[in-house]
Amino acid sequence: MEKAKDLKIAVLIKQVPATENVKINPETGVMMREGLDVEVNPLDLHAIEEAVRIKERFSGGPQVTVLTMGPPVAAKAVRYAISMGCDGGAVVTDRAFAGSDTLATATVLAEALRKLGPFDLILAGERATDGETGQVGPAAGALLGVPVLTYVSKLELQDGRLTAERAVESGHERFSAPMPALAIVIKEINVPRLCTLGGKLKAKKTEVRLISLADLGLPVESVGLRGSPTKVVRVRYPQVTRRGRKISASEDFEKAVGELEHFLAEVNG
Ligand SMILES: Cc1cc2nc3c(=O)[nH]c(=O)nc-3n(C[C@H](O)[C@H](O)[C@H](O)COP(=O)(O)OP(=O)(O)OC[C@H]3O[C@@H](n4cnc5c(N)ncnc54)[C@H](O)[C@@H]3O)c2cc1C
Question: Full-prediction pTM beyond 0.90?
């Protein structure tokens, strides 16, 4: 077994509504999350799985810490990651974070990573199924000033370096970067495991730390709506209209084709 003395890994995970049908408040432009069931962002399960696989691959037990920014109930997401094999985790939570855009979110996460770290490797998912910008991982890496590898489908660590295969349109690229580094994984990288009963019991007993704005020491203007240069100006849903008509060809085929021709000409203006 390879050795990885004192290797520290962090995984960024987001708790998201357990539905693809997220509604936006048309007045405020903010996501309406009330009353929705939540789960760990499905793409983040691959980041958790990869961290746990690295932990299992190396002797000397690399420590895997899970980090999420969200309401205190996001501790449930952290516990889920612990039940998959991570060692511990924290929720960065404060009312002042409400309304944070991707830059403000990344600012908070980067500062929390600095406080809990330093980490040799930070893993994140490709995108969150609710916000879907894919910006938070790269932004956090940029704020920390570490190399960022995106679309990672294979990951190897050796001698303080990280080598990654990146899935691109034309195939795969191979990159290498010194650690500390941040890697954004895609779902092709692995198949996330299911939680074991032992994992669930461990997760129940593990304390999940809550980290506030004061703990981070960030100025209040750098987080929440005030720290968010993105402003939702207007939210508009595309109109789905189906002007369908049933045309039967069972009795008079020629007539049905004529009717269809006429209908298509009418629909296409
Ligand atoms: C003006 C504005 C106001 C907003 N106000 C609110 C609001 O009031 N409440 C609200 O909930 N959202 C709000 N949002 C949405 C919020 O900015 C995004 O949900 C958040 O920044 C994450 O972006 P994303 O969902 O696109 O994640 P992505 O960038 O798609 O996520 C990529 C990866 O980054 C990591 N990641 C993302 N978010 C987190 C997180 N929170 N913790 C840990 N890791 C994470 C995960 O690994 C994830 O797979 C607002 C957005 C804007 C533009």
Answer: no
